[in-house]
Amino acid sequence: MNLSCQESLVPGQTLEEKLANLAAYGFQAVEFVGEALWERKEEIVEALRHTSIKASVLCPRQRGCFLAAEKEERELAVSDLKRSLELASHIGAVGVITIPIFGPRPRLPDLSPLANAVELEHRLMVGILGGIGKYAQKLGSLVLLEPLNRYEAHFLNRLEDAIELCQEVGSEGVKIMADFFHMNIEEGQIAQSIECAGQYIQHIHLADSNRLLPGHGHTDFAAGFAALSRVGFDKFMSLECRIPGDARIELPKCAQYLKRMWDSQIAPAAKE
């Protein structure tokens, strides 16, 4: 199991201290989160040089919106994603988590009977991903589409939605990031959805049903891990959640809990 954790969850005054703590807690990688991460390039490169911890992915707080009605906003989102992909490639991260749009409703007009707003969003996103996917592929990086639950976004809620986009774009530079918190809300059967999307999933977010550390809610991680094992998933799984209590105690406990569960699913999957 390749276990990662978002940088902001880790105790430490400096990035070097955070990475040292992660290694001591039993993690293999760190996920970088924030705005304009490329401005931290030198700090990140230097810190990674002195640790066994790898960079898993980038999760930038994006500017602009890929599905805005205003061209300037779309161009800003694409420009920032390109810069993030360049940084991901430089530090050896898998790719960049990408969310097409937040919010309960489209920002594009309804042009029925030509197309309604959501149909336009889909067409627009396919067009954007076609170009950015080629750019990511050239860099040896990935655009990682993240489906969000219906309360956070009206577009791209389930893994099947992301699969459809990946298939229409047809680029090896566009894949999926699957989040257990969102899947617990949107997917009928998490394990079945993972198996259907298996070839596209290149990163995982871990959070329980209540957004706390795994083990503090009712999400069936065992079934999900078994499905990931069956599809041969060997990339990073990263904590993106709240920590109840002292992170210095809870993070190593969580790492041990997750690794025991993962190991318990490997043997049965290997026999099938």
Summarize the model shown:
With 272 residues, the chain is an alpha/beta fold.
Detailed description of the structure:
The chain is globular, with a radius of gyration of 18 Å. It has nine helices and eight strands. It has an eight-stranded parallel beta sheet with strand order 3-2-1-8-7-6-5-4. β7 (201-206), α8 and β8 form a beta-alpha-beta unit. It has a single domain, classed as Alpha-Beta Barrel (TIM Barrel), CATH 3.20.20. The chain has 272 residues and is α/β, with parallel strands linked by helices.
Notable characteristics:
8 strands, globular, 272 residues, TIM Barrel, 15% strand, 8-stranded parallel beta sheet
What is the CA-atom radius of gyration, in angstroms? Answer: 18 Å
Helix coverage percent: 40-55%
Write the CATH architecture name: Alpha-Beta Barrel
- Secondary-structure element order, N to C: EHEHEHEHEHEHHEHEH
Overall tally of domains: 1
The counted number of beta strands is 8
Largest sheet: 8 strands, parallel
Q: Quickly name the level 1 CATH class.
A: Alpha Beta
Structural class: alpha/beta
Question: Kindly, what is the distance between the CA atoms of the first and last residues, rounded to a whole number of angstroms?
Answer: 19 Å
> Helix count, per DSSP?
9
User: Could you say what the CATH topology is called?
Assistant: TIM Barrel
| % residues in beta strands | 5-15%
Strand sequence of the main sheet, in spatial order?
3-2-1-8-7-6-5-4
How confident is the prediction overall: mean pLDDT?
96
What characteristic shape results from the CA principal axes?
A: globular
The CATH superfamily bears the name: Divalent-metal-dependent TIM barrel enzymes
Low-confidence stretches: none
